[in-house]
Amino acid sequence: MNAELTSTQGLVPLAAVPLITCGALSHDAWRALALSRLIALGLPTSRDDAWKYSSLNLMQRRDLTPCTDFSAPAQLLSSLPERQGATFVCLNGQLIAELSSGVLPAGVRYTPLNDLFDSPIGSMRARLRADDSAEQRLRLLNAVVCTAGVAFDVSAQQAPVEPVHLVHIATHHGHYPRTLVSLQAGSRLNLIEYYLSVDDSSSVSVPVTDVELAEGAELQHTTLGLAGMNSVVYADLNVHVGKNARYVHRSLELGGLATRLDLKVHLDANGAEAHLNGLLLADKTRQIDIRTQMDHHAPNTTSSQLYRGVANDRGRGSYDGKVVVHQGAAKSDSRQSSRNLLLGPKAEIDARPQLEINADDVKCSHGATTGSIDEEVLFYLLSRGINHDTARALLIFAFTDDVIATLTDPALRREVEKRVLASLPTAALIRGFVQ
Amino acid sequence: MTTNTQNAAILEITDLSAEINGRAILKSLNLHVRAGEVHAIMGPNGAGKSTLSQVLAGRQSYAVTAGSVLFRGENLLSLPPEERARRGLFLGFQYPVEIPGVNNVYLLKAALNAKRKQAGLPEVDAFEFLGLVREKMQLMQMDESFLSRGVNEGFSGGEKKRNEILQMAVLEPVLAILDETDSGLDIDALKVVANGVTSLRRHDRAILLVTHYQRLLDYITPDYVHVLMDGKILKSGTASLAHELEARGYDWVREEAANK
């Protein structure tokens, strides 16, 4: 497939197309609609404000053909942390039964995404409304070419305690996973996703994830970016949070050549809550961009965002976070914090927190800092006899702790700490402090 | 001449001048401290008390422009801060920093091991070390939860100061400089901190108490009291000088010095 789709035919918005009654939408019809929209809009370019910080040229130079190689590099899985609970492994978007293991917690149902089209389970049309976005056109690209996907549906009867692990592996070319997570009223799920690629892969991953939380539901959602040094990931995550429901996201971006995460959260009903935490580790020549939009649509909604970035060598990162408090969303409470650490003269991190308030009686705060290691804190450690390199390494590590500390799974936390340590040139000096 | 260790010189500051960002703070300061002595450095805000503490501990942002400092006969100013610490100099900070993610006990252990290495001693046994820390924690009336927390993470002002003295108790310095250790403490915390310091008075250790108020000196009686004003020691005396300063303020010291 070629990335140059610039024709201007078929300007009909996806949502406006009259679809078959009762909300059913065939997979083929959906795909055709997505294609016509993508052709009309074209792929994003660096002139689009939404793509200002991201290096699209990497994508334009690469082969985006969906990879159909499903011979599994099983050894990749051994690099994952120890896991309790069920593990689903998708290779180039396809669920691979032989690599998957464990039993889903009671109340959690897995469905291949294809089966959801033409099925009575909810309305796919409603769920896919985010696809029709001029700003996030890669969703359309995913819609056009993704052949398979994973859907989890969690019912209220039982509260699953064990996490569900979802592993995405890219081997070559284009990788278009699609995931749908629906939590029914009062249900809970702990979902941990891993993005991997084979070592020498120059893959381009365009994963799309949709999350829907019904009244009182809670999703703990962790994504671990562990792609190989030459892989590119442009992920899109769209979340709808219902009445008194709670969404907690932690993204740990520790891999890849270029990673972009677009995270859109809609606090749709009274009492909805979302908390986003993220760690960007941009060493070597890595580029990591986080883009969030938090929409407070309803009163008494709460959101927080905590992002920490570390850039070293020629690493680059950005945090572009927008909070919109819509009319009528009174007593909304929103916090945004982006702190970034630059460790070299050529490292760069851009932080851009933004706030748009269209309602009265709201509490909003935001803050962003970018700087080098705090000299005063460094001096404190030196004055205790700690040598300079060790003190510095300790402080870099400690800086990442704000986010790492939000990980509740001990095995996952150890794995992330291990990887953060491994990215520090002086890791050996501080192992004793953190283990 | 005898070689009595009680009288060994610990710190000899001669004509020390220091500046920050081109602004002179210390102006030809002289101070001699011997083993077993407790010296109080008092003075109004902005006199240079904290600068003196930081310069002695090796803070890079201050530039020493003249003078010398000998620590047990060795040129202190040529050593980086970590080397000063390993040789037995300890600074108790006025504002101890919080370092979430770096465990308190690990830092303490690393600090002790760095000092032991310097002295040619093997690393401390982990089990013994924990015993030692627990014992000192009791002295400082510190909660067990301290063991699992990050350095000063979420500590109250009083807890931070207790933690400083705990570190001093574990590291057993030759010279302890306590910078405004009494500031921000309520009376109970002040007593705990003062008792901790008093219990660490030894014949082979010197303590420099840098303080704004005489309050701390009600609990720790110094051997000498010095008034630091305008970047130098303007007057020295015994413990009674602290009371006089409390009663009369500082201005008279300057006038007296000018009339000399």
Q: Overall pLDDT of chain A, averaged?
A: 86
This entry's quaternary arrangement is heterodimer
Tell me about the largest β-sheet of chain B.
6 strands, mixed
Q: How many β-strand runs of chain A?
A: 21
Question: What general outline of chain A do the C-alpha atoms trace?
Answer: globular
Q: What is the helix content of chain A?
A: 10-25%
Low-confidence stretches of chain B: 1-5
Total helices of chain A: the number is 9
The SSE string of chain B, one letter per element, is: EEEHEEHEEHHEHEHEEEHH
Instruction: Count every beta strand of chain B, where a strand is a DSSP E run of 2 or more residues.
Output: 12
Poorly predicted segments of chain A? 1-22
CATH homology-level superfamily of chain B = P-loop containing nucleotide triphosphate hydrolases
What best-fitting shape of chain B do the alpha-carbon axes yield? globular
Which descriptors would you attach to this protein?
heterodimer; A: 435 residues; alpha/beta; 11-stranded mixed beta sheet; 10-stranded mixed beta sheet; 21 strands; disordered N terminus; B: 260 residues; Rossmann fold; 6-stranded mixed beta sheet; 4-stranded antiparallel beta sheet; 35% helix; 28% strand
Summarize the structure in words.
The complex is a heterodimer of chains A (435) and B (260). With 435 residues, chain A is α/β, with parallel strands linked by helices. Chain A contains nine helices and 21 strands. Chain A has helices at residues 27-41, 57-60, 113-116, 124-127, 138-145, 375-382, 388-404, 410-422, 427-434; strands at 86-91, 94-95, 108-112, 150-154, 164-170, 174-175, 178-183, 188-197, 204-205, 208-213, 218-225, 232-241, 246-253, 258-267, 273-282, 287-296, 302-311, 316-325, 333-342, 348-357, 363-371. In chain A, the strands form two sheets. In chain A, strands 3, 4, 6, 7, 9, 10, 12, 14, 16, 18 and 20 form an eleven-stranded mixed beta sheet that branches. In chain A, strand 1 and strand 2 form a beta hairpin. The longest helix of chain A is centred in the C-terminal third of the chain and has 17 residues, at 388-404. In chain B, strands 6-9-10-3-11-12 form a six-stranded mixed beta sheet, with helices on both faces. Chain B has a four-stranded antiparallel beta sheet with strand order 2-1-4-5, with helices on one face. Chain B has a two-stranded antiparallel sheet with strand order 7-8. Chain B has helices at residues 49-57, 81-86, 104-118, 126-139, 157-171, 187-199, 239-248, 251-259; strands spanning 9-20, 23-34, 38-42, 63-71, 74-75, 89-92, 99-103, 150-151, 175-179, 206-211, 224-229, 232-237. Chain B is an alpha/beta fold and 260 residues long. Chain B starts with 8 loop residues before the first strand and ends with a helix. Chain B has a single domain (9-259), classed as P-loop containing nucleotide triphosphate hydrolases (Rossmann fold, 3-Layer(aba) Sandwich), CATH 3.40.50.300. The longest helix of chain B is centred in the middle third of the chain and has 15 residues, at 104-118. The model of chain B is unreliable at 1-5 (pLDDT under 50). In chain B, helix 5 (157-171) packs parallel to helix 6. Chain A binds chain B through residues 374-377, 379-388, 390-391, 394-395, 397-402, 404-405, 432-434, and chain B through 57-61, 80-82, 84-86, 90-91, 93, 96-97, 99-103, 106-107, 110-111, 114-115, 118, 150, 167, 171.
